[in-house]
Amino acid sequence: MPPSPKSKITFLCQDCGHTSPRWEGRCPSCGQWNTYVEYSPPKAPGQRNGGLRRQSQANVPVLLGDQPVDGGRRLSMGMPEVERVLGGGAVLGSLVLMAGDPGIGKSTLLLQFAAGLAAEHKVLYVSGEESGGQVRLRAERLGIAGASVLFLAETSLEAILGQMEVVQPGVLIVDSIQTLYSDATPSTAGSVAQVRECTQLLMRWAKETGVPVFLAGHVTKDGNIAGPRVLEHMVDVVLYLEGEAMSNFRLLHGVKNRFGATNDVALLEMRGDGLAEVADPSAALIAERQSDVPGSAVVVTLEGSRPLLAEVQALTNPSAFTPPRRSSNGTDFNRMAMTTAVLGRRASLSLGNQDIMVNVTGGLRINEPAADLAVALAIASSYHDVPLAPNTVFIGEVGLNGEVRRVPQIERRLSEAARHGFVRAVVPKGSADAATEFPPSMEVVAVSSLREAMAAALPQVRRVRAIQDSA
């Protein structure tokens, strides 16, 4: 009897999916260190079907104009804000990955999706983490226990695919991808090889049948999706559900979307009956703001295609240590440090002995440079212990030379600010010159440097300095 061949062991990069016949300290594809893990490829090419009874037809080249289309049909989930993040609803045959910290509400939101879709489509909810009784208790708490949702507690992908051939669902929801395993890959559930293989098979099934698939994904302690980084490249849409541990608000970020705008966000509120949409996120984010205190500035940021008002808070305090402490929550720390250096060098603020803390309220994270001016003026306001000009928003990117640089879509930003009662805006001169129309109720102050912005935002400090200079 001939000896059975040994299974071939290769090494897989968890960040980019690059494979190598030997272990390497640094991935030659993405350049990351210590990301290689052992990976056993499927035993035989014939087993990659993983229970799929439908055999793929041989593909032949067809003119792009002759390719079949479905007319852009999308499925409604009964949550307009979430549908906007997806680009108008779930696309047929799409693969949607929702990631988030444990207990953030991923399973709750997916169950609400299932109930909303079940009104017009046959929905199969597959759980590898909870029993049917546990999911039913959650559904009763959400008030959707009567929804016509089919439930399956299973972790074997072959068994799931077999049931889907029988049930023929119109929507598939899997909670979560890290709990599934395929017999074609000899490794434990949740491993890099299993996550990659199971996602590949589900993606193939979704494209062949035209059924949208929603996947829940775990995240690591670093905030990255567990499994290979190639997982995010395989799926069509990646959603992140984020929020502060002690806050009722949750932010649903669309960080990847092949069918719509990226970086769109929906604000959700966790209630006793599930996650409810917040129709006006800007009003909720600045609802508790105190306008007459130092260190508070309002910026209009763009999250995807939507302008949002956010409050930037700053606190300066003489430091007892060397070097002084710097912290940033909700903004990029490096940009905050850069803005602090510009304030010291170009605006003559002595911040070298000051602890500086910057925070964006409501759990929102601002990544665009348009918040630089609001961060700088909030720090200056706290340093002088003088409130900023009331009912004013501050928009602009700050350069290393102290210039205030233009930002895109200034008209949409100011329209959102005017809608919430703001009557004054400090904006870059380049953006003001390029704009065609401003809200009639808005006074626009165009500035070209950080010093001009401080003079417009802190008139009390300007008057005191003028008196000191004359004396």
Short recap of the structure:
By secondary structure, this protein is of the alpha/beta class.
Question: What does this protein structure show overall?
Answer:
The protein is an alpha/beta fold and 471 residues long. The chain folds into 3 domains: 8-41; 78-279, P-loop containing nucleotide triphosphate hydrolases (Rossmann fold); 284-470, Ribosomal Protein S5, domain 2. Helix content is 28%, strand content 25%. The chain contains 13 helices and 23 strands. It has helices at residues 80-85, 106-117, 132-142, 157-167, 192-209, 230-234, 281-285, 333-346, 372-384, 410-419, 429-434, 450-457, 459-470; strands spanning 10-13, 19-20, 36-39, 74-75, 90-91, 95-100, 123-127, 149-153, 171-175, 213-217, 237-242, 249-257, 264-271, 274-277, 296-303, 306-318, 326-329, 354-360, 392-394, 397-398, 404-405, 424-428, 443-447. The strands form 6 sheets. A 9-stranded mixed sheet has the order 8-7-9-10-6-11-12-13-14, with helices on both faces. It has a 4-stranded mixed sheet with strand order 15-16-18-17. It has a 3-stranded antiparallel sheet with strand order 2-1-3, with no helix packed on it. Helix 8 (333-346) packs across helix 9 and helix 9 packs across helix 12 (450-457). The longest helix has 18 residues, at 192-209. It is globular and about 75 Å long. The N and C termini lie far apart (104 Å). 41% of the residues are buried. Mean pLDDT is 87; it is low at 44-56.
